[in-house]
Design a protein that fits this description.
The structure is a homohexamer.
Chain A (H helix, E strand, L loop, with lengths): L13 E15 L5 E9 L2 E7 L4 H6 L5 E11 L2 E10 L17 H14 L3 H14 L19 H19 L5 H10 L4 H4 L10 H5 L1 H17 L5 H12 L15 H24 L26
Parallel strand pairs in A: 3-5
Antiparallel strand pairs in A: 1-2, 1-4, 2-3, 4-5
Helix pairs in contact in A: 2-4, 2-5, 3-5, 3-8, 4-5, 4-10, 5-9, 5-10, 8-9, 9-10
InterPro entries (chains A, B, C, D, E, F): HD_domain (IPR006674), YhaM_exoribonuc/phosphodiest (IPR050798)
Protein name (chains A, B, C, D, E, F): 3'-5' exonuclease
Organism (chains A, B, C, D, E, F): Erysipelothrix larvae
């Protein structure tokens, strides 16, 4: 028997399926009865549910991060499916990795590919800094998302995003030989690594206090500085350029970069970052969009509403 | 005997060389003597000269667009070479094409390559529109610059820029298969074609009145509309999408796009345009820049001052 | 017996009246019962209604654009009247024109007046372009609104707005003889004509895909270009100036004009457009506003809240 | 014998003409010789002159505001006429009014017309405030300019500008009867009156300290408040509305209005002010502009460069 | 028996307590039953209540500004306490001052202190203007709030804010002797006095029409002008400087200052105003904030979300 | 015999005085003769000189940073004194410290005072971080300026600025006890320390490459991170808060802070920094300003032109 998944639910279905609780809000109806608004997720998508007349025991039991077998009715509400929850059975135990969205790539594939891009770096200063940073963050690099929402917001999102950017970097260096592949690759590999400290966890990720107070850009720049002190390359041109690429990769002051790109590879790093992130957002926007219609406004894309051509690709 | 060229002049040289006059300003010294400030150019660069105590006949004779044999002293003034002009002999006739900067590519190469990209377009509506527009502008497409200054500001600059963008477009469509190569290529090929009407000429290019009052974006959008009427494809989805790409390719209202990119290929067209233009500007900025120093502020690059790393590529 | 109209409904009334359905949203109460939120309209105004416990047959039957006899209770809810719907009878047929807001002017009057303004144009190039565009859009010019909301958002709104602007244009040309009446009138008559393609219909108007992807400014500029090709006046000064007026009439880049006004009549066209639109909005804002109070914030008037003086006009 | 005027000087002329000195800058040549750069003006225009090798006595004698008979050579320098000064004879006395630009209207005409507009105000509160303010500033109202530069920057400019705005106000109230003519006229008549304290004098006008520290908007609002206290109408609706019109007439915070227009007449006052000022600037821009060319950038018109059509009005 | 206060209510409590009604919204449930949403306040805080199934007599009786004995159940709703209202008894009469938030300082203390700061002003012009303004507004100066919300939004808030600013002003003049204490103190004492006319009342304060149409900055500047006319010091340097300080104290055009600070004391007045207001907001934000957490976004602090350190002060 | 100083030079003087060369520009006159434009400085001010007809030997000898005895004529040129240089004798040697502007405080005084503020810090984590950073930069902290121009742009400027801010910080913590003096003092002491790496030297200071590519904010944040690693306090709340204060002390993204102030002490640090810097600029602006006049526009003060009151302090 195949397990029911969120992405195959339909209006009117009465069914039972295992789901991860990603958020819980408690409410009280006008009649004073408590109810829960629960956000659920599995590896095919996410959906919201209401549990009316929830018993005190159950109310206390439902918590963010738990996985249970949920008995539901699926109904259409304001044009979107919603669940009416009747019961959640938390007795069985599940592997959380089966309930999260993941990369289109296997972790082993990403590790091998990124190892390959590291090996392309010929300059030994860049290479040693990159290696030491990868050692420091270890496995987390392949687990963390590249954002808490918007783009690459899934387990392994960070590595997936960096992989896509490495491909682009290599292509651009072929088209425009003036670019220094070593510096650009080192920048691509490290630019977002501070997110491992900016976010709380690979799954159900939130901003940590230091994420908000310092930001991944400054966290990583300081880490690279400390690494260069340890490696005895603190005052090299390479250390300075790599720190500059990390600091400037958001491209504008109002996006949190304290300096603007002032070397050509810094400018291109910002373009590569943007293109790969936006293509990932387009994947999501266009996936289920009907031809000849406009998608809902996309906040991270300057609130624009994208169109899918009719009868053309 | 080899001809003296602008890029080999040195402080203290007294020499004679053929140059194109690109600008003339008339002045009067405190003693009431007339003099000329002349901008010269050949196919290796440009330089400014002063002609003190110029005779009335000579003063009247020196005009923008003329080419003559110029007798000069080269002197260093405020850190840059300047010419003291003693005489200009306009008696011989020259081919203006020998006195302008050109593309790094031969015209024939560009034509063949761009023909190849046109052939990649499989959709017959896009293809027919593209062909008709290329027919209309003919040879001029391979003569006009892509800008009056800043990037690709040379004879053949438009075609050179479009060629660079086509290469990028094909690469990106491979990395991100969600993109429609047909639409993107059609957009790349036509997006700046209106510049042939926006600028006055391939050489010594200025904005025409309609260039200022309408702009190349609106000129080309109207041209494509008219072409689609002629071809009987006015109301096709393809016609609408292609006009949209042309209108939105500057990416922001304040850069003269009346609509923002609302289809994925429009968004990417704006990125491709930007990257290829900026790489061309980097070529010029980094070419003669000393290692470990900053270039002068670059106005079209948000007034930033770019740095060339010391001892690294 | 006179028919009940929306603008005479009062709190507590139980009545029956014919209304046009302009929007329908489906909802489900906490008890799982379906209900409808319906926007109604007649030629005196618009109002929202709730149909609780709607039957499946009725739920399916209620659709945007239909007109029916509606049985309701009017009740005050959050300071505004709302309808409790008990039944809608769609058996009778109505003329949709009796259920939409219209111009204060009769269509025949508007046609005659606008014909008169066309006749004021002495320059034959402007005149022939204007005539050909009016021929192309025909009756629609007198049916479409000038906006989907905010100002002149009713059947005939476009012609009403253009009429008001023509009056202003003639006055201004008398006060400031430096202005060219021919160009200004031609600009006024054509500036918003592209809205006939930007909007879906005279009634229940929405943006079409090409409305969003191209915009009425670019649609009309292209149309005028094509018309000038047909008329053989493509390269005249008049054609260029008229296209410039259309392109620049929003006055600023961020309002969708790809070029700023660069001729005096373009500058004045933008002022005339603004004044006539704002006076129409003031008519609506001040109509029912109590003396000594402020109106709700008006989004299209920079979110300001206008005041009506006490005891003064 | 007719007196030579500035607007009829030509390259090469050696002549003598009476002119007003509007500015003097002292300089020293490389050889240590003193010279003067003098700005001259008469009632036909203004021009700059250089007095090389000026004698100490003459150097001390030349001062802003003096009028003398000047012996000059007119020469073309950088595309504009310039004077070589040989001598200035200050022995004769002149009437300064013959050396300043003036209104196209006679003072008596302006007084009669503005008196007429005052008489149109039927509301006695507005009328009494307006009268008391006109009494207070008296003759100065007909002498001061409306700006130190840009528009209506001549003797009588303030009254000329107010007259033009009154004409427009009356026209608009006819086209849009919702407007209150009394309030609008009172606002037009008083809105810029504070400039009489903001500027130093009708001629050679500069900002006074209170002009810079307070501004004409706040100066006049306070004056009206004080006047309403004297008249015993301090707490009337009319007093409040009129003060609001004065405060908000620049239309935007960044133009120095501490409140935005919040009554319909305030909004229209801002439009009328703008239109009349811009038409005056167009008069100057288009007067000597060659057909088919663009004027120099106009700073107060958002730095735009206006075009004059070829072969059309 | 001690009276129950709002700040000691807890989830599940059934109790009776006297409260001030600060706002009433009328609603109708889906079943057509009327209910009230009431905002209550006492001198310890404020809370919202719902009165379901309210009787018509009670519904009519509950009004903003009344004080009654309220019978309630306190329940937790969406993470905040809310009241279920069962009855309100308005028969007894209360002193409104017992139901409003007040200053941490006694009125007598504030009067004595502010009197002391007035006495520090040695310049007789500043002193006489300050005295006359204090005479005019009298007791209201010690009753009005400094804002309707955000900071010092309580009875006596204006005087409390001014007192805090005087302390800062004296300190800064000691650290930076270049500052003129007389001018700065006069500016501090008068800068916000216009709020007494901008707001409707010390309690339940709203903007008056003149508050919106003129603003406290312009109201006070005009008042000072009128006072200087009465005192015969209209044209003194002191009058001009003090009016400038009032006009410029918001520091930026977009915050409603028609001129920017152009004297050093004006610049410092803006800083002092800002610091004291922000420290008051911090008091409120940090008071109940848990260590190691972020407060909700604070709109008047540029929408930032402030953090309270863990284990440090 | 007392040495001539720059601040006592007068028009017409012929004299000899020792000065530091801070800048040299080489030029050529119209006759081809070389000349030098030299910027001079001593401990009383700075002045520009021209050396006409300079000999090749002298031309080569004059260099930035050298000190010599200069023979000059002082002449008035365009309203400012300028030097005509006749000779420079570099044979004697001077102490550069006698030719630079310095603090109003003795170095020993500043050291003692700042030591005292360090001792006020009771929290041992803050204290140890501060001490280690002061150890690292050592004497340079008391030599570097706080800016290359605008404010505290002299030897010892950094320490002078920090001293002024410490005084303010202590005062504010007394007035507003909610502030944490330990955190605020630590922030004040370290906030600008990165300028020691951002600038090239205490005298004739310029931006270093890492100053431009990283900025003092990021340089110092990384340094503090590295110090906390060494001290074993990397993960303390104190380390995070102190790094946050450094990062956010410019207060806005566009001023180079990658995060906005999110703790109360960070907000106040930004205010203190601003006030002390602006008071230093006011000292310079008001020092020689004539009463009743406006100073030239001050770029770092938002381009405002400050006024000095007449007859008041």
């Amino acid at each position: 028997m195949t397990t029911q998944k969120i992405n195959t639910l339909e209006n009117g279905m009465k069914t039972t399926l295992p789901m991860l609780v990603t958020n819980v809000l408690r409410g009280v109806t006008q009649n004073g009865a408590p109810y829960l608004t629960i956000s659920f997720q599995d590896n095919t998508g996410s959906i919201e549910g209401k549990w009316w007349d929830v018993k005190p025991f159950d109310e206390a039991n439902v918590k963010q991060g738990k996985i249970g077998m949920v008995k539901v009715d699926a109904i259409l509400y304001k044009g979107a499916l919603q669940l009416r929850v009747h019961n959640i059975d938390f007795s069985e135990s599940y592997n959380v990795n089966d309930f999260v969205l993941g990369s289109q790539y296997e972790p082993e594939f990403l590790k091998k590919e990124i190892e390959g891009f590291k090996n392309m770096i010929e300059n030994s200063v860049y290479r040693s800094i990159v290696d030491k940073c990868f050692d420091f963050y270890g496995e987390d690099f392949y687990l963390y998302p590249a954002a808490t929402k918007n783009h690459h917001d899934f387990v392994g999102g960070l590595a997936t995003h960096v992989y896509g950017m490495c491909l682009l970097a290599v292509d651009l260096c072929k088209l425009y030989p003036i670019l220094d592949l070593d510096l650009l690759l080192a920048g691509v590999l490290l630019h977002d690594m501070g997110k491992i400290e900016e976010y709380s966890a690979p799954i159900l990720s939130e901003y940590t206090p230091q994420g908000k107070l310092l930001g991944h850009i400054s966290i990583m720049q300081a880490k690279v500085y400390e690494v260069t002190c340890e490696l005895g390359v603190r005052d090299t041109e390479e250390a300075m350029l790599l720190r500059h690429l990390i600091l400037s990769h958001h491209g504008q002051y109002e996006y949190g970069s304290p300096v603007l790109p002032l070397v050509k590879e810094a400018e291109i790093l910002n373009f590569i970052d943007n293109i790969d992130a936006r293509m990932n957002m387009f994947d999501k926007i266009y996936k289920d969009l009907e031809e000849g219609t406009f998608a809902p406004r996309a906040f991270p894309l300057e609130n624009r509403t994208f169109y899918k051509g009719k009868g053309v690709k």
